[in-house]
Write a structure and sequence with these properties.
By secondary structure, the chain is α+β, with helices and mostly antiparallel strands. The chain has two domains: about 50 residues, Irregular (Rhinovirus 14, subunit 4); about 60 residues. Helix content is about 50%, strand content about 15%. It contains two helices and three strands, in the order E-E-E-H-H. The chain has a three-stranded mixed beta sheet, with no helix packed on it. The chain starts with 9 loop residues before the first strand and ends with a helix. The structure holds zinc ion. Zinc ion (ZN) binds next to loops.
Length: about 110
């Protein structure tokens, strides 16, 4: 090694807060420290497979639920629109019935 170009290193302990494993390493950091997870306890480093099947199923069921909710809402909106149209049609029908026809007017006039 070339002299006076490398940083000073210290032997420190890194402790995993999840599994309690301790690693002794060379570091430029001067103090011991704690990590949340390490190669000893993280499933990826242990070679364990993450069950993507259940994750996929959860996503699919969430999507299906979302679609079902949307369809339900669309059905509600459709019912509201239909009832509004029905009410409007009834109102128009009442107005149309109240309005006398030309023959009624002529008949009334001829009676007088
Ligand atoms: Zn660990």
């Amino acid at each position: 090694m070339k002299a006076n170009i490398h940083p000073k290193t210290y032997t420190i302990n890194i402790t995993c807060s999840s599994c309690g494993a301790t690693y002794t390493v060379e570091s430029t950091i001067q103090h011991d420290y704690t990590v949340g997870t390490c190669a000893n306890c993280h499933p990826i480093y242990r070679g364990e497979k993450i069950d993507q099947g259940t994750q996929k199923d959860a996503r699919v069921s969430a999507f299906t639920e979302k679609i079902a909710k949307a369809k339900e809402l669309q059905e509600k909106i459709k019912q509201i629109r239909e009832s509004k149209q029905q009410r409007l049609a009834n109102r128009v029908g009442v107005i149309a019935r109240e309005k006398p026809s030309l023959s009624d007017i002529v008949a009334k006039k001829s009676k007088k």
